[in-house]
Each structure stands twice: as C-alpha cells, then as structure tokens.
Amino acid sequence: MTIPKKSRWLLAAAAASALALSACTPATDDGGATTGGDGSIAMSQGVTTEPCPGSPNPDNGCIYLGILSDLVDGPFAPVSGPLTQGQEDYWTFVNNNGGLDGFDVDVTTYKRDNKYTVDEQIAQYNQINGDIAGIAQTLGTSATQAILDDVVARDLPTVIVSWWSGFEFDPNVIGTGYSYCTESIVGLDWWASENGMPSKVQAVGYPGDYGGDTAAGVDRWAEVNGVEIAPWVETGPNAVVGNQDAVVQQVLNANPDVVMLGVAPGETAEIVGKLAAMGFEGEFLGASPTWNKVLPESAAGPALAAKFHYLMPYDGWDGDSQAVKDMHEFLNGAMPEQHGYAFGWALGYPMQAMLEEAIVAGDLTPAGIKAQMDGLEVDYKGFQPNTVYDVNNVQANAVQAVNVFKPSETGSFGIEEVANQFVGTTFDKTDYSSACVVL
Amino acid sequence: MTHTTDKDLLERSSRLTGRSVRLNFEGSTGKVTSRVRRGRPSLYTSYAKDSALLNTPTKKFWVVVFAIIVVVAPFLVASDMTYLLTTAIIFALAGIGLNLLTGYAGQVSLGHAFFMGIGAYTASVLGGVSNGKVLGFELDLAIALPAAAIVAAVIGAVVAPLATRVRGLYLAVLTIGLLILGEHIFKSAAAITGGQGVGRTSAKRTLFGVDLTQAYMLGPLKITPEISMYMISLVLLVVLGIAARNLARGRVGRAFAAVRDRDIAAEVMGVNLLRTKTLAFTLSSAYAGLAGALLSILLGRTVPERWNLFLSIDILAVVVIGGVATISGTIIGALFVVMMPRLLEELTHVLPFITTSSGGLLNVFQLQTILFGVLIILFITLEPRGLYGLWIRIRNYFKAWPFSY
Asked: How much is the pTM?
C-alpha cells in the first residue's frame, strides 16, 4: 500500500524537523561583565555609572534593584503596601545621606506588583530579571519558590519577605528577623517565664509555611519542656473558610493554657473574642502577622487587652533603637499607615551590607554581590540583634530574641512593649538544622 | 451529416471553453489554467479541493506567512513576551476545548477550570519530583502530557451523563457545583496537590529524555527554556486545532450543532443525545486537561486555589470575545485576553491619569477589570461571533468592494 501523497509530505516534514532538532547542542553561557567607568569596579546588569532618576547625588552611579510585592489589590496589600513604602523610604534616606560609596540605590524603577499570585510573580519577574543587580524584596513563599530556580541560575542576590524556617537554610536568599518556628519557641519561653510552665499548649494556624511553621515550633518547645500539646488546629482565612467557629470549638475542647496563633489579624480578633466570650481561661500569643492597629476597636478589643500578647523580632515604633529613630526622623514625626512599614525599612540593612561589601571587593555584578551573602554580618542598628548569615552554622547564628507587646490605648499602633529582646533557653536545646516544616 | 469523432468534438468544444482541452468528465479532475483561475477563488475542480481547509490561494499564502511569523517570533521578541505568548497558546488550547463544548455543542460549562486542574495534577504527579509530602514519579513529559489529557477525558466522560439530564442554566449551575467540589478535593488531597495555600512543583521539563530546562544551540539560534516551551505548545496547538476544526466540519460537528440548536429535534432526527453530549464533554475535558498540564509546567509551581471560578471565566471570555463556535476565533480571543493587561501596562506610560499604584484617578488593574467586563457585554450584545465575526465583516467588506453595500 503506497502512502498517499499528502501524508508522504507530512511524514517527510516531520522526519526533517526531527533531524534538524537532533542537531541541537547545549548552550554555554558567556560572562558579559564589564568594568565600570572608574575602572576598578566590575559591573554588568543593573548597575550604571549614570545617576539614578531623581537622585540627590548627580555624581553617583546607580544600582537598580527589583521589588516583587503585593502592592494594590491582593490579600496582603494592606500590609505589604506600607512595607514596600518603608523599603523605598529607607533607600531614599540612604541616598539623601550620600548613597553607598559612589552609588545610589534605586528600588522604584523595577518595582512590580505580583498580586500575591505565582502567575503574576513569574510574569513580572521575567520582565525585570535581565535589568536588575538584585532583588530587594520578594513577597510570598510560594511566589518566591516559583522564581527561585531562575534567581539561582542568574546569581541574583535576593532579600525575601517570608519568615518560613526553610529559608534560613537556603544559601540563595536572605531574610530578616527570625522564623515563625523560632518565634513560637522563644515566645512560649517568655510566657513560661512570666506565668510559670503551662500544663498544655496548642497551636492554631494556616497550613503551610506560616501556621505550619508556627505549629512546628510549638511542637518542639513542648517536646523539650515535657509539656502536653493538644492537636494542631488547621484553619484558613475567613475568605476561604467563612468563620473560625470550628477553631473555637476545638480549642474549647482541648482547653490549653496557652494558644499560639498563626493567622491573620481579622481571624485573630475573632478567635480571641469568641473564646473569651465562651469563658475560655487560657491566654494567646500572636505571631508577627497577627496584629493590625484597628483590632482594639473591634468587638474583641477588651478580650485582646486581657489575654493577648503580640510577638515581633523587631523593635516597636515607640522603641529607642537607632533604626526607629531614623524612621521617625525621615517621616518628620508622622506615623506610617501600618507598623509593617518598619519591616520594609529593615529589609534595607542586609542589602546595604551586601552592596557595601561588594563595592569594597570591587565586584558589583549580581554574582559578585551574591558572593557576599555567605557569612554576611549585618548591623541592624538596634532594630533586631546584629546578625551573621551563615547557612552552615544556622543554629549558632539564628536570631532568637523576641519583643513582646500587649494591646494598649496609648502605644503607637495600639501596642505597648512589655519585654525587649527576650531570649529563652529552649531554642538551644532544639535541633535547628533544617526547615521546621517541609513544603 | 458528418460523422462526429472524438477529435471533432474536442476541437469544437475548445472553441467554447477557451484553452480547456480535455473534456473527459468521468474520473478526471479537469485542468484549468491559471489564467482562468485568477480572480475566481471559488472555482473548485475536485471534491478534495472543495472541502480543503485552505481552499483559496489567499488562505494558503497567509497561512504560510503566519506560520513563518509564529515560528520566528520568539527569537525576535523579549523572553517575557515569549512567556506571554506561550500563556496565550495554552489559553487557546483550553478555549478550543470549551468552544467544542459550549460553542459547537451548546452545553454551557463553567467547570472548565476543574478539568484543567485534573490535567495539571495528573501531569505533576506523573512527571514531578516527590519531596516526601507530595507524590511524584518523574516520568517523561511524553507520558505525562497524554496521561493528563486521558485522565481528564475519563473524568469528563464520567460527569457527562449528569449533564445530559439538564440543560441551559441548570447545566451551568451543575458545572459550578463540580468546580466547587473539585476545589475542595484539590485542597484536601495534600499528597497530590500540596494542600491549600502551599501548592506543589509541576512536572519536570524532560521531553523524550531531553532536559528542557537548559538552553540549546541550533546552529546560530539559541533555544532557551522559554522558547522550547513555546514551540511545544505551538506544535500541540496547531495539531489539535486542525483536529478540532476537522471534527467540527465533519459528522460529529454536525451532530454537535444539531444538539446545540434544538436537542429534542436532533434526537428525533436520530442523533444519539447521550453519545453526542458525552463525546462533547470528553473531548472538551481532554483539551482542558492538556492545557492545564502545560500551564502548570509553564508556571513551575501551582496552588490548588489556582483552579477556581475566575479561571473558568477567563476561558469563557476567550471563547466569547474570540468567537463562539470558531477555532481561529478562539486563538484570537486567547491572544487578546492574555495580551490586554500587558498592553494596558504599557499604556500607563503614555496616559498620565492611569497609574500603577493605588493613587491617581484610575489604576491600571481597575482599568483592566472594567475593560474586560465592558468587552464581554459588548461582544455578546453586538457581535456574538466575537473578534472573528468582526474580522469576517471586514473581510467581506473588502471582498465585495466596491459593491460592499
């Protein structure tokens, strides 16, 4: 049977293309680095000898960094919007004070909105990844992991906004503060130091990098201290699960002394308020994302004031660290929209440390900046303890100091500090050598 | 009277028909020269040519031009544009599936995202890496992609008998119910999907043993991972698009149209309703499964919340804006839906009152949402055949010019 003429043609075309494709060879990468105008500093993408747009220092060169954050519409925009503003203000502050040894830093030109979704993150990242020297902020654990392969392939130094413990062991990214896992451990240590060892603890949170990590920390603390732990209550944002009644029921049944909350502010208020109304006698500790300044005005206000303590690795707005003083000075005494503004400001410290080391080493290529990440020492100006980033020695170097706040009518953003830089004893007894919760 | 011979007949007839010489009607195609053909694009001299897809010289020419453009495009544009074009191709594949179901067969379905999710997770489980929390068998894409289509098709075939019992609005509500059920299953099945909010990585890009996460050189051309993904999606779109077009033109397509127009009348005429509707759901789900698998591979990581009602509405917008019951319209619609947000972003540089931040008169995301909604309304009321219908009007205007009235 002869093959019909048209099929013969198609077969020949398919065979020819297969043959052509088999001629593919793997591509090798060429460097592309050039030395800059002053001859001694190597630079490639994202660094120019021209000044930044709107720069106060016309003789400085410019280092362009990217921001991928939830700016306008997504679920975290109320927090990450002010956070990003804080970050931009930090670099304006640095540029106004002369920049970094001949360079200003621009984080606005390549600021992109990822709407807290993986799709947008990848699309926006693809737009900027060839033009930046590093990523000043990437928000969201899923979103960050989606681009991580390409970030590693391009050797882009990256600062993340995510407190999942796994990232502390990743040599390709740097975060600030501590992990949710550490927060639970040291937070419970503080509570025990104030109120005596509890007989039963419980964790409530969203599954995954946030609540899952928090719960893992509670597990570790309970194991080391021989305290009974009630089953972890998994929940979700009200937009997904409707309300937190199931959580309230499970906590009432378990009746712990302390509940560690790994949820968002709205859900925090609902859980604490409803449990207090039902006569629950235990107390609550909230992880860093659980507070919003409007919570005291909600129906749960009195319950929060009586039973809730808020944990943060950072100095509060009323603190006396140099970092907070710089923020006050920059804003001329005005208050930002959310206390998350300070989180964004703090993102500047590790990036500045990296860039300064890179300038000293004479290599402002992305790979050159990233090379400074290993063993980097960052001075946080009192905002958190000065930190050394060494993935081979995380337990010894990890931040484990917590600031504890309680709701207050007089404090800024509705909170008042009750403990500053508290360090417990349990963290050193745990084995912090990999992520507390695997994703 | 002279005795007429074949030769006489031939000579005399040549005077009647100009240059045509052979008049043997049985078994011959008849030769018509190009002088006669020019200006007569509808002159078909064989059944095969009459029913060909590319039946006019204009169509043949432009198909070759477009083929060259789409193959060359990724080498000429920036890589993030290649990524967007690949997304458009994948949306077009999903749109073709939905068009077969909703456009040709008239079965309203809002559950398309569910089948895309099924395909995505089938491919992720078969082709992805296992990390202790999620399953992954690291098989080749040549196994994972067809499996994604087949598994989604099987589930579509299971769901179809339910759909045959209801019609119209009730079918739409039933498919929404399917979508919500699917979302819940995806969020709960953490071993497959990674669970709510966490997600999982997708299938590895290994096709026939070749690792497509690296770049390759084909002579002077550099084939980056973006370009290889684009090419795979393009080949699948071309093959499956032509298959869908031929299906729509054939016996099955006519059965679909009969069911769409009035299914009771179709049943009276002998069209087996159960078989036809089941076939429509199965085919549509297969296309959706494949598109979902490709989308998950393109993104690299997916969360269960991705396969939600908004994705179904996006694909429905592709179908409505592009053109109901057309294949080329679906492709135009997909390009439009994917490129419009990007175009609007570029517009913010030109028009000062549209901003990317939350201040200003109108921010670009609000503009996108508004424009989307307005376009869907306009197309449904004014031009039901969508962008393809607009194109047909323009084409006919110029075809009939200067007698376009």
From this structure: 0.81
